[in-house]
Fold this protein.
Amino acid sequence: MEGAEFKVPIGPQHPALKEPLSLRMTLEGEVIKDAEIRLGYNHRGIEKLAEQKTFIQNIYLMERICGICSHSHTTCFVQGVEKLMGIEPARRGLFLRTLVAELERVHSHLLWMGVVGHEAGFDTFFMYTWRDREVVMDILEIISGNRVHYAINTFGGVRRDIDELQRQKILGLLDQLKKRTEYYFNIGVTEPTFVARIAGVGKLPQEKAIALCAVGPTLRASDVPRDVRKDDPYAVYEEIPFEVCTANTCDVLGRFVVRVKELYQSYQIIEYLLKNLPPGPVNVRAPRRVKEGEVVSRYEAPRGENIHYIKSNGTDKPERVKVRAPTLGNYPATVEMLKNGFVADIPLIFASIDPCICCAERLIELVDAKNGKSQIVQASVLRALGKETLRSKSISPAQAKEIWQQAFRNKGIKQWL
Amino acid sequence: MAETELIQKLKEALKEKAREIVSPAPRRIFIFINQQDLLEVIRTLKTTWGATHLSTITGVDKQESFELLYHLANAEASITVRLLIPRNHPHVQSICEVIPGAILYEREIQDMFGIVVDGIPDPRPLLLSDDWPKGEYPLRKDWKFERPPEKIPGGK
């Protein structure tokens, strides 16, 4: 059977994929020769729906395009519509909008680092980054009252203000995050087994990345310094000092390095925003009807360039809203990355572009395994419950060591005893 | 002003192919072209201005015709190439030979508006399901969604 090719379907429902998507792999042995992508399993008809809703309703519809970069879509939409309305948003509102945007980038990148750690078989890293992601989620909750859909944007600014106490608290939490990120950078780039797993995997040469119109960290990891925040500054990015981060290894390691560097930049931006927060109102009054016109709005989401085209016809409903989220822009590049890779690299390569995965709700439904009854519990109750369980069992470190030594003995593993 | 300079530059490069070039906002340029000049214009923009990045293709239903907008970008500005396609003969040229990354957007336009992209390397449907009825294009203005009556397997 030498040289024979096989077609293997992966997805739409597959344990290794986090969202419904169909990949058809043409394999020769264990090497991927070609890959096809089929979308539409999660198509919700949002563009059609947007034409039937008013502009205000559409802010909340746009928020629901994605669970992780929810703020990206609303900001992109809102800043486009503000241009059509001809209003100048409040300066303090723009600062707060950018603050939430950068916090969202931090939470998205931390989440991504965990996912790559998990796909590379480094689950401790996954647990660490996701624990620290909670800090960002808490900050976002302090600002907006919500963890996932912040609902902070409105035409003319933002909906909520922050006070001095909250500002100080956020700065304190930020210091904590900075220290942790440094630790991750050292682990992620110097830990030999981890680097060996992600280096050289999912190669995307520079010229291919440009030709296939890749966006965001995927593009920047192929050494193309393109960032909408720098090229086409919106909100208050024109006055904020920051750098565009790139890497030249063109593989998963490069994408890792780019994102860790971007975390540092985001911390800097957040600090700048909080220290230079101007006084004044957070929003201005916006009209209900929008003048006839069209606008192209671009935004650098955590995953890359997000573009909205909005056309209005003089009523309170848009004539057309076109949304292109960054993941769609990265699919042709993903096919290129998969080619000549191994089957075992599929989840890792696929995760490296950070495909959009829906976030969990804050309410958790618990189903009792014994009687099948379900119960809705708040996260804070769960946290307290976990702590109490550990305390009630009162396992000391010495006892824990005894437990795992016993486990190894039972399995006959001697070298770690 | 950078935009007026850029418009001048583009006018020289595109000559009579550009019917109209306007800049309604900073770093935004709209070029109105004829349908048959699409490939030439995209190629010229790519070589003379470095517009290698295609952000997306937007389709707009304007009743008697369809409007296609090709959003190109480089570090300087975002250029939108606009063209009109007659509704009774919805055909457009594929630009994949100039910008290979356009493939998914062209497939999306085919699915959603029923505009036939001539010379597309992969014409299969992208977003709509395999059993989607022929001749139904969801983003056309005259398309309305009606939920089909529920059929219970084995029921009456």
